[in-house]
Amino acid sequence: MSKFSPFEDSLWFATAAPAPQTLMLEERVQADVCIVGAGYTGMTTALELAKKGVKVVLLEAQQAGFGGSGRNAGHCTPTFTHYSLPQLRKLLGEPWAERLIARQTQANAKVSSMIQHYQIQCEWQQNGYIQAASRPSAIPLIQEKVGQYNAVGAKTRFVNKAEVEDITGSPRFFGGWFHTEGGHVNPLGYARGLARAVMQEGAALYTGSRVDDIKPEGGRWLVKTEKGSVVADKVIFSTGAYTVGGWPKLDQSFKIMKVFVAATQPLSDDERQSVLPQNTTIHDGRGDIYVYKYNAEGRIVASMFPMGRRGRDMAYTRQVMSDRLKWLHPQIKQDIRWDYFWFGELDMQYRTVPRLYGLAPGVVALTGLSGRGVPTGSMLGGILSEWALDVPEKDLSLKIEPLHKAPFYMSYGPQLTLRYYRAVDWLKSRMDGATLPPHP
User: Fold this and answer.
1) Which of 137, 185, 308, 371 is most exposed, with the fewest beta carbons within 10 Å of its own?
2) Contact 380, 46 (CB under 8 A)
3) Where does the FAD dependent oxidoreductase domain start and stop, copy by copy (predicted)?
Protein backbone atom coordinates (compact mmCIF):
# COMPACT_ATOMS: atom_id res chain seq x y z
CA MET A 1 0.00 0.00 0.00
CA SER A 2 1.45 3.35 -0.97
CA LYS A 3 1.70 6.19 1.46
CA PHE A 4 -1.34 8.03 0.19
CA SER A 5 -3.49 5.28 -1.30
CA PRO A 6 -7.02 4.80 0.03
CA PHE A 7 -7.23 2.40 2.96
CA GLU A 8 -10.42 0.52 2.15
CA ASP A 9 -8.69 -2.78 3.06
CA SER A 10 -8.57 -1.63 6.68
CA LEU A 11 -11.05 -2.97 9.20
CA TRP A 12 -11.09 0.44 10.85
CA PHE A 13 -12.12 2.16 7.63
CA ALA A 14 -14.97 -0.33 7.28
CA THR A 15 -16.26 0.03 10.85
CA ALA A 16 -15.34 3.48 12.21
CA ALA A 17 -17.98 6.10 12.89
CA PRO A 18 -18.27 8.57 9.97
CA ALA A 19 -15.85 11.47 9.76
CA PRO A 20 -17.20 14.94 10.52
CA GLN A 21 -17.95 17.10 7.52
CA THR A 22 -14.98 19.31 6.67
CA LEU A 23 -13.94 21.55 3.80
CA MET A 24 -10.81 22.37 1.85
CA LEU A 25 -9.14 25.68 2.69
CA GLU A 26 -9.93 28.05 -0.18
CA GLU A 27 -9.36 31.47 1.36
CA ARG A 28 -6.87 33.46 3.42
CA VAL A 29 -7.53 33.05 7.15
CA GLN A 30 -5.92 34.31 10.35
CA ALA A 31 -4.87 32.23 13.37
CA ASP A 32 -2.82 32.42 16.52
CA VAL A 33 -1.49 28.92 15.83
CA CYS A 34 -1.51 26.91 12.61
CA ILE A 35 -1.09 23.14 13.06
CA VAL A 36 -0.16 20.95 10.11
CA GLY A 37 -1.29 17.33 10.33
CA ALA A 38 -4.57 16.02 11.75
CA GLY A 39 -3.37 12.88 13.49
CA TYR A 40 -3.56 12.30 17.23
CA THR A 41 -0.70 14.72 17.96
CA GLY A 42 -2.04 17.57 15.85
CA MET A 43 -5.61 17.14 16.99
CA THR A 44 -4.87 16.88 20.71
CA THR A 45 -2.67 19.97 20.39
CA ALA A 46 -5.50 21.83 18.67
CA LEU A 47 -7.93 20.61 21.33
CA GLU A 48 -5.74 21.79 24.22
CA LEU A 49 -5.25 25.22 22.66
CA ALA A 50 -8.84 25.76 21.54
CA LYS A 51 -10.10 25.02 25.05
CA LYS A 52 -7.91 27.88 26.28
CA GLY A 53 -9.35 30.33 23.77
CA VAL A 54 -6.47 30.23 21.30
CA LYS A 55 -7.51 30.69 17.66
CA VAL A 56 -6.34 27.52 15.91
CA VAL A 57 -6.36 26.43 12.28
CA LEU A 58 -5.59 22.76 11.65
CA LEU A 59 -4.58 21.72 8.13
CA GLU A 60 -4.68 18.13 6.85
CA ALA A 61 -3.59 16.97 3.40
CA GLN A 62 -6.05 14.07 3.30
CA GLN A 63 -8.64 13.38 6.03
CA ALA A 64 -8.38 13.34 9.80
CA GLY A 65 -6.62 10.16 10.90
CA PHE A 66 -5.53 9.24 7.38
CA GLY A 67 -1.96 8.36 8.40
CA GLY A 68 -0.70 6.28 11.28
CA SER A 69 -3.47 7.49 13.59
CA GLY A 70 -6.08 5.68 11.51
CA ARG A 71 -4.03 2.66 10.41
CA ASN A 72 -2.41 1.42 13.62
CA ALA A 73 -3.37 -1.80 15.39
CA GLY A 74 -5.42 0.05 18.02
CA HIS A 75 -3.70 -1.08 21.18
CA CYS A 76 -3.26 1.65 23.76
CA THR A 77 -0.35 0.84 26.07
CA PRO A 78 1.17 3.72 28.08
CA THR A 79 4.73 2.38 28.13
CA PHE A 80 8.06 2.76 26.35
CA THR A 81 9.25 -0.04 24.10
CA HIS A 82 12.96 -0.13 23.39
CA TYR A 83 14.33 1.36 26.61
CA SER A 84 13.83 0.54 30.26
CA LEU A 85 13.02 3.52 32.47
CA PRO A 86 16.59 3.67 33.91
CA GLN A 87 17.98 3.61 30.35
CA LEU A 88 15.57 6.38 29.35
CA ARG A 89 16.72 8.55 32.24
CA LYS A 90 20.31 8.10 31.14
CA LEU A 91 19.45 8.82 27.50
CA LEU A 92 17.34 11.95 28.01
CA GLY A 93 18.74 13.31 31.24
CA GLU A 94 16.81 15.02 33.98
CA PRO A 95 14.37 16.65 34.38
CA TRP A 96 13.16 15.81 30.85
CA ALA A 97 13.17 12.04 31.33
CA GLU A 98 11.03 12.18 34.47
CA ARG A 99 8.59 14.61 32.86
CA LEU A 100 8.19 12.46 29.76
CA ILE A 101 7.86 9.28 31.82
CA ALA A 102 5.08 10.89 33.84
CA ARG A 103 3.19 11.98 30.73
CA GLN A 104 3.57 8.64 28.95
CA THR A 105 2.62 6.45 31.90
CA GLN A 106 -0.46 8.60 32.57
CA ALA A 107 -1.46 8.84 28.89
CA ASN A 108 -4.25 6.26 29.01
CA ALA A 109 -6.04 8.26 31.67
CA LYS A 110 -5.96 11.18 29.25
CA VAL A 111 -7.24 9.04 26.37
CA SER A 112 -10.04 7.60 28.51
CA SER A 113 -11.02 11.05 29.75
CA MET A 114 -11.26 12.51 26.24
CA ILE A 115 -13.27 9.54 24.97
CA GLN A 116 -15.74 9.89 27.83
CA HIS A 117 -15.96 13.67 27.80
CA TYR A 118 -16.54 13.96 24.06
CA GLN A 119 -18.53 10.70 23.83
CA ILE A 120 -16.24 9.35 21.13
CA GLN A 121 -17.56 6.15 19.55
CA CYS A 122 -14.38 4.10 19.10
CA GLU A 123 -14.88 0.68 20.73
CA TRP A 124 -12.81 1.77 23.74
CA GLN A 125 -12.03 -1.11 26.09
CA GLN A 126 -9.71 -0.76 29.08
CA ASN A 127 -9.29 -4.35 30.20
CA GLY A 128 -5.53 -4.35 30.49
CA TYR A 129 -2.47 -5.35 28.50
CA ILE A 130 -0.28 -8.42 28.87
CA GLN A 131 3.33 -8.61 27.76
CA ALA A 132 3.85 -12.34 28.07
CA ALA A 133 6.92 -14.29 29.11
CA SER A 134 7.40 -16.70 26.21
CA ARG A 135 10.14 -18.59 28.08
CA PRO A 136 11.16 -18.93 31.75
CA SER A 137 14.29 -16.81 31.38
CA ALA A 138 12.16 -13.81 30.37
CA ILE A 139 10.49 -13.64 33.78
CA PRO A 140 13.20 -11.63 35.64
CA LEU A 141 13.08 -8.85 33.02
CA ILE A 142 9.31 -8.68 33.32
CA GLN A 143 9.54 -8.48 37.09
CA GLU A 144 11.98 -5.58 36.70
CA LYS A 145 9.41 -3.78 34.52
CA VAL A 146 6.81 -4.18 37.23
CA GLY A 147 9.08 -2.53 39.79
CA GLN A 148 10.18 0.28 37.47
CA TYR A 149 6.70 1.26 36.30
CA ASN A 150 4.99 0.90 39.65
CA ALA A 151 7.62 3.19 41.17
CA VAL A 152 6.36 6.01 38.92
CA GLY A 153 2.68 5.39 39.68
CA ALA A 154 1.64 2.87 37.02
CA LYS A 155 -0.71 0.06 38.01
CA THR A 156 1.03 -3.11 36.85
CA ARG A 157 1.76 -6.52 38.32
CA PHE A 158 3.45 -9.80 37.55
CA VAL A 159 1.13 -12.70 36.76
CA ASN A 160 2.24 -16.31 36.97
CA LYS A 161 1.69 -19.07 34.42
CA ALA A 162 -1.73 -20.06 35.71
CA GLU A 163 -3.04 -16.50 35.88
CA VAL A 164 -1.69 -15.49 32.48
CA GLU A 165 -3.46 -18.50 30.99
CA ASP A 166 -6.71 -17.49 32.72
CA ILE A 167 -6.40 -13.96 31.28
CA THR A 168 -5.24 -14.85 27.76
CA GLY A 169 -6.58 -18.33 27.20
CA SER A 170 -3.16 -19.39 25.88
CA PRO A 171 -1.15 -22.28 27.37
CA ARG A 172 2.08 -21.03 25.79
CA PHE A 173 3.13 -18.41 28.34
CA PHE A 174 5.18 -18.78 31.53
CA GLY A 175 4.01 -15.56 33.15
CA GLY A 176 3.51 -11.96 32.15
CA TRP A 177 3.47 -8.25 32.82
CA PHE A 178 -0.14 -7.21 33.36
CA HIS A 179 -0.72 -3.50 32.86
CA THR A 180 -4.21 -2.88 34.23
CA GLU A 181 -4.52 0.52 32.52
CA GLY A 182 -3.88 -0.85 29.02
CA GLY A 183 -6.69 -0.67 26.52
CA HIS A 184 -7.63 -0.85 22.86
CA VAL A 185 -9.68 1.19 20.41
CA ASN A 186 -10.84 1.47 16.86
CA PRO A 187 -8.06 3.98 16.12
CA LEU A 188 -9.73 5.63 13.14
CA GLY A 189 -12.93 6.00 15.14
CA TYR A 190 -10.91 7.65 17.89
CA ALA A 191 -9.22 9.97 15.37
CA ARG A 192 -12.54 10.99 13.86
CA GLY A 193 -13.94 11.58 17.33
CA LEU A 194 -11.02 13.85 18.13
CA ALA A 195 -11.71 15.75 14.91
CA ARG A 196 -15.29 16.35 16.04
CA ALA A 197 -14.04 17.46 19.45
CA VAL A 198 -11.57 19.90 17.87
CA MET A 199 -14.36 21.50 15.87
CA GLN A 200 -16.69 21.47 18.87
CA GLU A 201 -14.12 23.47 20.86
CA GLY A 202 -13.95 26.10 18.12
CA ALA A 203 -10.82 25.24 16.14
CA ALA A 204 -11.02 25.29 12.33
CA LEU A 205 -10.16 21.98 10.63
CA TYR A 206 -9.52 21.96 6.89
CA THR A 207 -8.97 18.67 5.06
CA GLY A 208 -7.68 18.05 1.53
CA SER A 209 -5.41 21.02 2.25
CA ARG A 210 -1.77 20.03 1.85
CA VAL A 211 0.79 22.63 2.87
CA ASP A 212 2.93 23.60 -0.13
CA ASP A 213 5.00 26.41 1.34
CA ILE A 214 5.65 28.44 4.48
CA LYS A 215 7.44 31.78 4.70
CA PRO A 216 7.67 34.83 6.94
CA GLU A 217 5.21 37.66 6.36
CA GLY A 218 5.12 40.80 8.45
CA GLY A 219 6.53 39.22 11.59
CA ARG A 220 4.15 36.27 11.29
CA TRP A 221 4.09 33.09 9.18
CA LEU A 222 2.27 32.58 5.89
CA VAL A 223 1.31 28.92 5.43
CA LYS A 224 0.17 28.26 1.86
CA THR A 225 -2.00 25.44 0.56
CA GLU A 226 -3.16 24.76 -2.99
CA LYS A 227 -6.12 27.14 -2.82
CA GLY A 228 -5.73 29.04 0.43
CA SER A 229 -3.39 30.28 3.13
CA VAL A 230 -3.12 30.79 6.87
CA VAL A 231 -1.38 33.72 8.51
CA ALA A 232 -0.35 32.68 12.02
CA ASP A 233 1.93 33.72 14.85
CA LYS A 234 3.11 30.15 15.40
CA VAL A 235 3.23 26.98 13.33
CA ILE A 236 3.43 23.35 14.46
CA PHE A 237 4.20 20.46 12.12
CA SER A 238 2.82 17.13 13.38
CA THR A 239 2.72 15.08 10.19
CA GLY A 240 4.87 12.17 11.39
CA ALA A 241 5.59 9.33 8.96
CA TYR A 242 3.20 10.83 6.42
CA THR A 243 5.19 14.05 6.02
CA VAL A 244 5.25 15.31 2.44
CA GLY A 245 6.83 18.71 1.91
CA GLY A 246 5.83 21.50 4.26
CA TRP A 247 9.28 22.30 5.62
CA PRO A 248 12.63 21.58 3.93
CA LYS A 249 14.21 18.27 5.03
CA LEU A 250 11.61 17.57 7.71
CA ASP A 251 10.85 14.26 5.99
CA GLN A 252 14.55 13.34 6.42
CA SER A 253 14.41 13.50 10.23
CA PHE A 254 13.19 9.88 10.40
CA LYS A 255 13.22 6.67 8.39
CA ILE A 256 10.12 4.75 7.40
CA MET A 257 9.46 1.31 8.83
CA LYS A 258 6.40 -0.60 7.67
CA VAL A 259 4.04 -2.62 9.82
CA PHE A 260 1.01 -4.64 8.81
CA VAL A 261 -2.26 -5.32 10.58
CA ALA A 262 -4.85 -7.97 9.77
CA ALA A 263 -8.26 -8.96 11.08
CA THR A 264 -9.85 -12.41 11.08
CA GLN A 265 -13.45 -13.38 10.59
CA PRO A 266 -15.46 -13.07 13.83
CA LEU A 267 -14.71 -15.96 16.15
CA SER A 268 -17.57 -18.08 17.43
CA ASP A 269 -19.09 -17.38 20.83
CA ASP A 270 -17.65 -20.66 22.15
CA GLU A 271 -14.13 -19.74 20.99
CA ARG A 272 -14.40 -16.30 22.55
CA GLN A 273 -15.11 -17.91 25.91
CA SER A 274 -11.57 -19.35 25.93
CA VAL A 275 -9.57 -17.12 23.53
CA LEU A 276 -8.82 -13.76 25.18
CA PRO A 277 -11.77 -14.30 27.54
CA GLN A 278 -11.12 -11.01 29.35
CA ASN A 279 -10.80 -8.96 26.14
CA THR A 280 -7.25 -7.86 26.92
CA THR A 281 -4.50 -6.86 24.49
CA ILE A 282 -1.71 -9.44 24.21
CA HIS A 283 1.95 -9.04 23.26
CA ASP A 284 3.20 -12.61 22.94
CA GLY A 285 6.62 -11.65 24.29
CA ARG A 286 8.63 -13.06 21.42
CA GLY A 287 11.50 -11.32 19.67
CA ASP A 288 9.39 -11.56 16.51
CA ILE A 289 6.52 -9.53 17.90
CA TYR A 290 2.89 -10.63 17.53
CA VAL A 291 0.34 -8.35 19.20
CA TYR A 292 -3.37 -9.12 19.08
CA LYS A 293 -6.78 -8.36 20.56
CA TYR A 294 -10.48 -8.32 19.63
CA ASN A 295 -12.49 -5.65 17.91
CA ALA A 296 -16.15 -5.05 18.78
CA GLU A 297 -17.31 -7.70 16.29
CA GLY A 298 -15.18 -10.44 17.82
CA ARG A 299 -12.50 -10.40 15.15
CA ILE A 300 -8.90 -11.00 16.19
CA VAL A 301 -6.85 -7.98 15.09
CA ALA A 302 -3.15 -8.87 14.92
CA SER A 303 -0.04 -7.00 13.85
CA MET A 304 3.48 -8.00 12.83
CA PHE A 305 6.46 -6.49 11.05
CA PRO A 306 7.38 -7.44 7.49
CA MET A 307 10.45 -9.67 7.34
CA GLY A 308 11.77 -11.57 4.34
CA ARG A 309 8.83 -13.08 2.46
CA ARG A 310 6.45 -11.91 5.16
CA GLY A 311 4.68 -8.80 3.97
CA ARG A 312 5.57 -9.42 0.30
CA ASP A 313 4.12 -12.88 -0.36
CA MET A 314 0.59 -12.39 0.91
CA ALA A 315 -0.45 -16.06 0.92
CA TYR A 316 2.64 -16.92 2.93
CA THR A 317 2.05 -13.95 5.24
CA ARG A 318 -1.50 -15.02 6.02
CA GLN A 319 -0.29 -18.54 6.70
CA VAL A 320 2.37 -17.29 9.13
CA MET A 321 -0.20 -15.22 10.99
CA SER A 322 -2.70 -18.08 11.10
CA ASP A 323 -0.11 -20.60 12.28
CA ARG A 324 1.06 -18.29 15.07
CA LEU A 325 -2.49 -17.60 16.26
CA LYS A 326 -3.51 -21.27 16.26
CA TRP A 327 -0.26 -22.25 17.98
CA LEU A 328 -0.98 -19.69 20.70
CA HIS A 329 -4.59 -20.87 20.95
CA PRO A 330 -4.96 -24.54 20.01
CA GLN A 331 -8.63 -24.32 20.96
CA ILE A 332 -9.31 -22.49 17.68
CA LYS A 333 -10.44 -25.35 15.45
CA GLN A 334 -11.85 -23.48 12.46
CA ASP A 335 -9.71 -22.28 9.59
CA ILE A 336 -8.55 -18.70 10.05
CA ARG A 337 -9.67 -16.30 7.35
CA TRP A 338 -8.04 -12.87 7.29
CA ASP A 339 -10.85 -10.66 6.03
CA TYR A 340 -8.90 -7.41 6.27
CA PHE A 341 -5.22 -6.71 5.70
CA TRP A 342 -3.51 -3.33 5.56
CA PHE A 343 -0.15 -1.59 5.97
CA GLY A 344 0.97 1.46 7.90
CA GLU A 345 4.22 3.37 8.21
CA LEU A 346 6.20 4.36 11.30
CA ASP A 347 8.47 7.41 11.60
CA MET A 348 11.47 5.71 13.19
CA GLN A 349 14.48 7.40 14.71
CA TYR A 350 17.21 5.83 16.76
CA ARG A 351 16.01 6.99 20.18
CA THR A 352 12.49 5.60 19.60
CA VAL A 353 11.34 8.63 21.63
CA PRO A 354 9.63 11.62 19.94
CA ARG A 355 11.85 14.53 18.96
CA LEU A 356 10.82 18.18 19.16
CA TYR A 357 12.60 20.32 16.58
CA GLY A 358 12.92 24.09 16.54
CA LEU A 359 12.72 24.96 12.83
CA ALA A 360 12.63 28.76 13.11
CA PRO A 361 11.40 31.35 15.61
CA GLY A 362 7.77 30.43 16.18
CA VAL A 363 7.93 27.16 14.21
CA VAL A 364 8.41 23.64 15.61
CA ALA A 365 7.95 20.09 14.39
CA LEU A 366 7.51 16.83 16.22
CA THR A 367 8.43 13.50 14.61
CA GLY A 368 9.82 10.12 15.58
CA LEU A 369 6.97 8.49 17.48
CA SER A 370 8.54 5.20 16.36
CA GLY A 371 5.34 3.20 16.58
CA ARG A 372 4.11 4.28 20.01
CA GLY A 373 0.76 5.25 18.57
CA VAL A 374 -2.39 6.01 20.51
CA PRO A 375 -1.20 7.00 24.01
CA THR A 376 1.95 8.80 22.88
CA GLY A 377 0.25 10.79 20.14
CA SER A 378 -2.49 11.72 22.58
CA MET A 379 -0.21 12.99 25.33
CA LEU A 380 2.08 14.98 23.01
CA GLY A 381 -0.64 17.54 22.46
CA GLY A 382 -0.07 18.70 26.01
CA ILE A 383 3.62 19.36 25.34
CA LEU A 384 3.09 21.16 22.04
CA SER A 385 0.27 23.27 23.42
CA GLU A 386 2.51 24.37 26.29
CA TRP A 387 5.14 25.44 23.76
CA ALA A 388 2.52 27.43 21.84
CA LEU A 389 1.40 29.07 25.12
CA ASP A 390 4.98 30.28 25.73
CA VAL A 391 5.91 27.91 28.53
CA PRO A 392 9.71 28.37 28.82
CA GLU A 393 11.74 25.77 26.93
CA LYS A 394 13.45 24.65 30.13
CA ASP A 395 10.06 23.68 31.56
CA LEU A 396 8.83 21.58 28.63
CA SER A 397 8.79 17.77 28.73
CA LEU A 398 10.85 17.48 25.55
CA LYS A 399 14.01 19.37 24.71
CA ILE A 400 13.79 21.60 21.65
CA GLU A 401 16.66 20.64 19.35
CA PRO A 402 17.89 21.61 15.88
CA LEU A 403 16.47 19.58 13.01
CA HIS A 404 18.49 16.38 12.61
CA LYS A 405 18.73 14.18 9.57
CA ALA A 406 18.16 10.56 10.54
CA PRO A 407 21.42 8.59 10.27
CA PHE A 408 21.77 6.38 7.21
CA TYR A 409 21.88 3.21 9.30
CA MET A 410 18.26 3.80 10.31
CA SER A 411 17.35 2.66 6.79
CA TYR A 412 18.24 -0.89 7.77
CA GLY A 413 18.89 -0.75 11.53
CA PRO A 414 15.34 -1.44 12.77
CA GLN A 415 15.01 -4.49 10.51
CA LEU A 416 18.38 -5.82 11.63
CA THR A 417 17.37 -5.25 15.23
CA LEU A 418 14.17 -7.25 14.73
CA ARG A 419 16.13 -10.11 13.19
CA TYR A 420 18.57 -9.99 16.09
CA TYR A 421 15.75 -10.10 18.65
CA ARG A 422 14.16 -13.02 16.81
CA ALA A 423 17.46 -14.94 16.79
CA VAL A 424 18.12 -14.28 20.48
CA ASP A 425 14.57 -15.29 21.36
CA TRP A 426 14.93 -18.53 19.37
CA LEU A 427 18.26 -19.35 21.03
CA LYS A 428 17.11 -18.60 24.59
CA SER A 429 13.86 -20.50 24.06
CA ARG A 430 15.83 -23.54 22.96
CA MET A 431 18.12 -23.21 25.95
CA ASP A 432 15.07 -22.97 28.25
CA GLY A 433 13.43 -25.96 26.62
CA ALA A 434 10.45 -23.81 25.66
CA THR A 435 8.34 -24.79 22.67
CA LEU A 436 8.88 -22.60 19.62
CA PRO A 437 6.04 -21.40 17.40
CA PRO A 438 5.89 -22.25 13.69
CA HIS A 439 8.13 -20.04 11.53
CA PRO A 440 10.29 -19.06 14.57
Assistant:
1) 308
2) no
3) 32-387
The answer as to CATH 3.30.365.10 being correct for domain 11-73+188-255+350-406 is no
- From edge to edge, which strands make up the β-sheet containing 291-294? 156-160, 175-179, 129-132, 281-283, 291-294, 299-304, 255-266, 338-348
Q: Are 276 and 284 in contact (CB under 8 A)?
A: no
Residue 420 sits at the vertex; the CA angle it makes with 417 and 426, to the nearest 5 degrees, is 145
pTM: 0.95
* pLDDT tens readout for residues 167-198: 999 999 999 999 999 999 999 999 999 999 99
By CB neighbour count within 10 A (0-12 exposed, 13-18 middle, 19+ buried), where does 191 fall?
buried
- Domain boundaries 125-184+256-347+413-432, corresponding CATH code: 3.30.9.10
Span 105-153, pLDDT tens digits: 999 999 999 999 999 999 999 999 999 999 999 999 999 999 999 999 9
* Structural domain spans, the chain: 11-73+188-255+350-406, 125-184+256-347+413-432
- Using an 8 Å Cβ cutoff, are 32 and 148 in contact? no
Q: Which residues pair with 310 in a beta bridge?
A: 307
Q: How do strand 338-348 and strand 255-266 relate by DSSP bridges?
A: antiparallel
For residue 270, give every residue at least 6 positions away whose Cβ sits within 8 Å of its Cβ, in sequence order, or none: none
CB-based burial label for 337 (10 Å; 0-12, 13-18, 19+): exposed
